C-alpha cells in the first residue's frame, strides 16, 4: 500500500511501528555512517599526532570533545530515524545537510587540536543540529500521541544551539566551562523529551545501526593501522617488531568484533533507562574503537624511532582503548546475557589487557589474553535471560 503524498511529493512523517517485521538499515543510513567515519578518522589522526608529541592530556581532551560532536549528531539522527524515517526527498535532503555539516566539522578538527580553535567545529555542529530540528518539527505535525516528545526535541535542541553559538564569543577559560554545561544540556534533551511521551524506537533496528557503525569504526582502525605498518616497512625498518604489531592488530580487531556481537543487543534497548544507557554508553565504545588506530600507530612510531613517547606510555595508548571497548560492551550488553564464568572472564580479560604494558612481553600477552576471552565466548553461549537458563548455566 502506497503512502499518501502531498502536492510537493512529501510523505507524512507518521510514527513507525516499533514491532515492524524485517526492519533493516536503509542505504541512506549506511551512507550517513560512512560520511561520519571520515570525521572520526581525521580525529584519530590528530590524536595520533598529539600522542607522538607527548601532549597526552591535550590530545585526549580534544579527542573527547571532537568525538562528542560527531557521536551525538550521529546518535540523534539514528534515534529519530528509527521512529520517523519517511525517505522522501525532503527527508533525504535534510539528512544530506547533516552529512555536509560533519564534513565541514572534519575540516576544523586540525585547528581544534593544534590551536584550540573550535569555531568551525561549533558552526558545523550547529548546522547539523538545526537540520535535525527541522526533521523533529516536521515529525511533530503527524506524530499523534508522541507530539509532545517531538516538540520537546525540536525546541530543546534549538535552544541549546543558540548557546553553542554564544559560547564562541567567550574567552578561552569561560568557553571550556560553557562546553561542559552545554554537553550536559544536550544529553538532557532526550531524557526530557522521552519522559513526556516515548517515541516508537525499533530495538532491532537500533541494534543493527549501532552494530554497523561499530563495524565501520573497527574497519577504519584496521585500515589506518595497516597503512602505518606498511609505510614503516617500506621505509626499511626492522620487519620483526612490525610483523608482531600487525598480528596484534588483526587479533585485537577480530576479538573486539567477536566480543561486540557475541550476544544480541536488542534486549538492552528496552525501557527508557536501559535504552538511554545503551545509547549514551556507546560514546565510550565508539570513541575507543576510533582511538585504537591512534594507539597502534603510536606504537609503530616508537618502534621506528619517530615518537617522543615513552614505550610504556605508547603501549597504554592501544591497551586503554581495547579495555574501554570490552568493559563498555560487557556493562551495556554482555553481563545481562552471560553466565557467571563469562561475567568474570570478560572484565578480567579487559583489566589484564589494560595492565599489559607493565609486563615485559606486551604484544604476545595481549594476543593471548584476547584469544582466551574469545575462546571462553565460543565455549559459552549467550543466555536468553530467563531464570531457568541462568540457573542451569550457573549450576
TrEMBL record:
It comes from the Bacteria. Keywords: Membrane, Transmembrane, Transmembrane helix. The chain crosses the membrane at residues 60-77, 89-112, 118-137, 172-189, 210-230, 242-263, 275-296, 316-334, 346-379. Pfam families: LtrA. InterPro entries: Low_temperature_requirement_A (IPR010640). Signal peptide: none annotated. The keyword Iron does not apply. This is Low temperature requirement protein A. It comes from Paractinoplanes pyxinae.
